[in-house]
Specification:
This protein has 293 residues and is α/β, with parallel strands linked by helices. Helix content is 45%, strand content 8%. It contains 12 helices and 5 strands. A 5-stranded parallel β-sheet has the order 1-2-3-4-5. β3, α5 and β4 form a beta-alpha-beta unit. α2 runs parallel beside α4. The longest helix has 31 residues. The termini are far apart.
Length: 293
Amino acid sequence: MQAEYGSVTHFYNADTFNEQRPNTSSPDFVREVANATYRGMIQADSEAIWVMQGWLFVYDSDFWTPALIEAFLTAAPLGRMILLDLDADSYPVYNNTQSFFGQPFIWCMLHNYGAVEGLYGRLSEVNRGPVWARNFSQSTMIGVGLSPEGIEQNEIIYEFMNEMSWRTTPTDLNFWVADFVDRRYGAVNAEAHLAFRSLQTSVWDRPTGDANQGHYALTRRPRLDLVEPIWYDPSDVYFALEHLLNATQTLPQSPILMYDLTDLGRQALQVAFHTVYGTFQEAVKVQNLKNAT
C-alpha cells in the first residue's frame, strides 16, 4: 500500500468479526485475534493506529458481553486503536463499555441504512448525544463523524450533525432551524419557518432509535402484513407541504426550493398511501370487499 500511495497515513481499517460471530466465546481467542491483527499492522508501520467500527457490538450484542469486548479491545495498547461508535445517535456502545474500555472513539451518526429515500432524523438526540458522550465518566471520545449508507437526502440533519464538532453544549433547535431555513432560501419567510418547524418536531425528531425509515408500503413488494414505521402524525407533513407551497409565492424560485418542495410532496404522497394501506389491511382482515376496493 505504501508503495502505491506513499507514506500518507498511520491509520488502518480492519473490521474484524463485523456481522460475523466468532466460533467461540473464549476471551483468550478474541484477544489473540485482535492482538494478531494489531501486530500485523505494526510490522508494516510501527506507528500504525487500528481504526475499527464498533457495529459488531450492536449487531450481535447477545454474543459480545462486556468481558468479551474488553478482552478484544485491550489486546492493542490504549491509544493505538480508534473505535467508530457507528450508530451512536440510536445505539451507542461507549456508555455500556466504559468508554470502549479506554480506547479512543468517535461518536458517529449513521442515520441512513441502505441508501433509502424519505424524511427522517433525530435532531434532539444529535443535539445532546455528542455532548453527553464528551461528558461521560472517563470519556475517551475524540470527535464526531458521519457514517451513512446513503447521502443526498435530509440535508438539514447532516448540516446540523457537522456543526456538533464545534459545540460543547446543546443549542436552541428552534433558533437553529429557523436560521437554517433563512440561509437555505436566502430570505426570511414566515411560511417556510412554519413548514420546517412542523417537520423539526415530527418527522425529523424520532424519539427512539428503532426506526426502519424509508420502507414505505408504496415502494415495497406487495404484501398484506407489512408494518410501516410511521412515528409522527401525517398531518404534520401535509401542514408543512401547504406552508412551503405558500412560501413559493414570495421566496426566490431557487433550484433548492424546488427540490425541497418536490421532496416534501413525495413524502406527503407516501404517507397518504400509508393511511390507505392501513385501511386496506383492516378491510382484508375482516373480509370487507367494499372497503378493500
